[in-house]
Amino acid sequence: MLIRKIVNIISIIAGILIVTAIGFNKLPWWSLLVLGLLWFFITAYGVTNIRSGYFLKSLSSNPKLTEKKIAITFDDGPDFNTLKILEVLNKYNVKGTFFCIGKQIEKHPDILKKIIQENHIIGNHTFTHDKLIDIYSTNKFTNEIKETDTIIEKFSKKKPLLFRPPYGITNPNIARAVKKTGHTVIGWNKRSFDTTIPSEKVILKRITKNLKGGDVILLHDTKIITVAVLEQLLLFLQRNNFTTVTIDELFSIQAYA
Ligand SMILES: [Zn+2]
User: Considering the domain boundaries, does residue 165 fall inside one?
Assistant: First the structure.
């Protein structure tokens, strides 16, 4: 957040100097355009990279961890496919962290209950996960989080404290919303691209390449391919002596209030 303020202040000062220099014919007009583009690319990088911490603090991996512990997270459920994911997790006695969408919980309350009963962790992933959610006002985004908290609380009897922004996008409105609701923002450092890559092998390779203790893996419990990838992944983890923990354990934080 501090970096963003420094970038903005430097850009404004540089802008004033450049405009003055242009006024005195010391610089060409397009030098202002170069500055604008530079600012735009830095800001765009901050918006699209949750790990950059440009707009808000997020936990995306725990590099301080010396043990071979990793966390597997599942976004966008609950969904019918979640049941298959739960089966695989059960088979290997592994606990996951599920970032659930409020409207999906409305559709599949029994599946949410099952996730809770089987001692996995539930986090908030907004109510609608709308394609345009990243241009919502602070108030509208705050309501997305609060509504989802309410419905999760209805089933878990506990207020969730973990939040993952859709698409990993962050911006000033989302930063303000999260500050209001008091959630801990959770990112990832191992993106599987299981929603777009059609090959199990390629997805698995993306996740397991250079995997180390403290890593956070992003999967989607809504995808059929993820069921097979998960089984392969859990076998890999077993063979390589990794322990899978939930997000709260990986970062030693509270998952619920
Ligand atoms: Zn999502």
Answer: yes
